[in-house]
Amino acid sequence: MRKSFIISAMAVVFAACGQKVAEPVPFEVVPQPMEVSLGQGAFKVVPEFNIEESVPAEAAERIAEFQQRISQATGKKARAGEAFDFYADPTLGPEEYAIDITAERVIVRAATYNGFIFAIQTLKQMMPVEIYGTGRIKGGIALQEASIKDAPRFAYRGMHLDPCRHFWSIDEVKKYLDIMAVYKLNRFHWHLTEDQGWRMEIKKYPKLTEVGAWRNGTVIRKNWDTNDGIRYGGFYTQEEMREVVAYAAKLGITVIPEIDLPGHMVAALTAYPELGCTGGPYEVWTRWGVSEEVLCVGKEETFTFLENVLTEVMDIFPSEYIHIGGDECPKTRWAECPLCQARMKELGIREKNPVKAGQLLQNYVTARIQKFLADHGRKVIGWDEILEGELAPGATIMSWRGTQGGIQAAKSDMDAIMTPSSDGLYFDHYQTRELDKEPFGIGGYAPIDKVYSYDPYNGVPEEAQHHILGVQANLWTEYIATPEHLEYMLLPRLAALSEVQWCQVGDKDYGRFSKAMDRQASLYEFLGYTYCRAFWGETGLAGVEPAEPAAEN
Ligand SMILES: [Zn+2]
Fold first, then answer.
1. How far apart are CA 166 and CA 273, in angstroms?
2. How far is the CA of 343 from the centre of ligand 1 (A)?
3. 30, 135, 291, 499: least CB-packed within 10 angstroms?
4. What is the 8-class DSSP label of residue 148?
5. How far is the CA of 332 from the centre of ligand 1 (A)?
6. How close is the Cα of 334 to the center of ligand 1, in Å?
7. Dist. CA 193 → ligand 1 center (Å)
8. Could you tell me the distance, in angstroms and rounded to a whole number, from the CA of residue 339 to the centre of ligand 1?
9. CA–CA gap between residue 271 and residue 211 (Å, rounded)
10. Are the C-beta atoms of residues 48 and 82 closer than 8 Å to each other?
11. CA nearest to 236, candidates 244, 228, 226, 248
12. SS3 track for 383-445
């Protein structure tokens, strides 16, 4: 941060001496663009824009907003001119863009909405961090001469959020999306249902949120038989979710909703006990882990329920992909339930081992829901457990229990998204080994350099690599109860993730990335995000108990 401070001070000094061009900020764009060549000169930013008619209308709106921001920041009137020239270039790919900055002007080319907004994100990252605000920037803004051509390595660049174990308001979700957009992520995986709370309003089943969104306490640390006795919960109305979808779309982000089935359903079962094998009674879970209480898939009404829920999901979320979970579904209830056993018989499942028989039954559930969604033009993503039993062709596998699920899927001609908990992509894991300082958490170890060094092609044969659609980090929130703690776990690891997702292998360079970290910290501070300062040698978060008591001397 010391460095940024000196630079902004210099910019003011130059302006005070009557020089017309402020000093450009050093080029520290994250994720690093694919091709960059920097010049010696600088361009003095003025709000004179030409947006050619070839630019898609919605992109033109964002460019016009950017012009207004430049006008505010420079204190000059926005007007038509040739200082910034935006035009559509159909030779570029869907998320590609090119920027040419000379001392005279800035030319921006892209083919699509995302291409143009990513170009704007890059230009903003080349300006003082105050550009993210609404105020005047003293001394004006200069852009370093540069020629940039950029395109992402992966089409799927995701970040996940768990609003079930702890609930995040719509405003907090938007703030999360804002910082994802800075780093050019384009998928937001919203995990909307869990044992500990159902968070999505479903008009046809009001009790899902009247009953299922609330629990009577939350486990204290890992003392499974205790809880704090404090009623906890919340949910998103359909109107709020539509608002988030629209907000994300403006940022170039598709929201992928997850309805986790047939396990992780205790909250739904509490609301509608008739959907379980035993009929309950059930209670929205107050502890973490894996419950044996899952949907009864011997009953037709369970499928009617799921189809009705997914119909409302599809109505709210335009995403081509719907995540249907499929993880951690114990088969104990199915082994004892006459209806589930009858279903197995009907399906010709003769497997004697109850776990294997249950996996085959889960394959049936996955395939049936997959077909229902396919009939409505949607595709499914499932956690890697859906590979157990028989393969589910056509589904996209989200590999979380290490990388093997994704590798197996790709080798079997199926698409996969890599989110391995073993390789630094579980952002609920600790960021340092200083457990006497780290805020109490679930465990694990995912320091920023580990996140950065992950390569999703590791172990994937070359001929199967095209099946790796992309990369995502997951942020589960069992032990994360405040927005400050959530942001502390997200940042700055999100910056490292973005280079895994965006940069070609040869363009990744932890040394270069490290030099850009002060700039990221300035950005978080300016925008009011909490972040982990372990990179700067300072671990811990005020207000959250550390994982372990401080060692006594
Ligand atoms: Zn059953």
1. 23
2. 9
3. 135
4. E
5. 10
6. 5
7. 20
8. 5
9. 5
10. yes
11. 244
12. EHHHHCCCCCCCCEEEECCCCHHHHHHHHCCCCEEECCHHHCCECCCECCCCCCCCECCCCCE
What's the pLDDT tens digit per position in 92-102?
999 999 999 99
301 CA distance to ligand 1 middle (Å) = 11
| Model pTM score | 0.95
From the CA of 278, how far away is ligand 1's center (Å)? 7
Inter-axis angle of helices 170-182 and 238-250, to 10 degrees?
20
- Residue 276 CA to ligand 1 centre (angstroms): 6
**What residues have CB less than 8 Å from 503, skipping those under 6 apart?**
31, 32, 34, 153
Using DSSP's 3-state secondary structure scheme, residue 318 falls into: coil
Q: Which distant-in-sequence residues (6+ apart) come within 8 Å of 227 by Cβ?
A: 216, 217, 218, 219, 220, 286, 287
| Residue 416 to residue 426: CA distance in whole angstroms | 17
How many whole angstroms from 498 Cα to the centroid of ligand 1?
A: 43
Tell me: the pLDDT tens digits for 461-470? Answer: 999 999 999 9
Q: Report how far ligand 1's centroid is from the alpha carbon of 329 (Å).
A: 13
| DSSP symbol at 543 | T
HSE toward the beta carbon, residue 350, CA cutoff 13 A: 1
CB-based contacts of 226, cutoff 8 Å, min separation 6 = 219, 220
Pick from 325, 329, 354: nearest CA to 341: 354
CA of 394 to the centre of ligand 1 (A): 26
Query: Of 375, 379, 376, which is closest to residue 394 (Cα–Cα)?
Result: 379
- What's the CA gap between 261 and 217, in Å, rounded? 24
Alpha carbons 547 and 312: distance in angstroms, whole number:
41
- The span from the CA of 492 to the CA of 30, in Å, is 11
In this structure, which amino acid lies at residue 244?
Answer: V
- The answer to whether 15 and 140 have CB atoms below 8 angstroms apart is yes
For 447, half-sphere exposure in the C-beta direction (CA atoms, 13 angstrom radius) is 12
Q: With 60 as the cut, is the pLDDT of residue 4 above it?
A: no
φ, ψ (nearest 5 deg) of residue 363: -55, -40
Over residues 226-251, the pLDDT tens digits come to: 999 999 999 999 999 999 999 999 99
Percent share of the chain, pLDDT over 70: 96
Do residues 238 and 201 make contact, with C-beta atoms less than 8 angstroms apart?
yes
Token look-up 């869907």 returns 94
Cα 333 from chain centre:
33
Separation of CA 196 and ligand 1 centre (Å) = 21
Q: Which residues contact 86 (CB under 8 A, 6 or more apart)?
A: 49, 50, 51, 52, 55, 59, 60, 63, 108, 109, 116
Alpha carbon distances (Å) from 208 to 197, 212, 272, 504: 9, 5, 8, 44
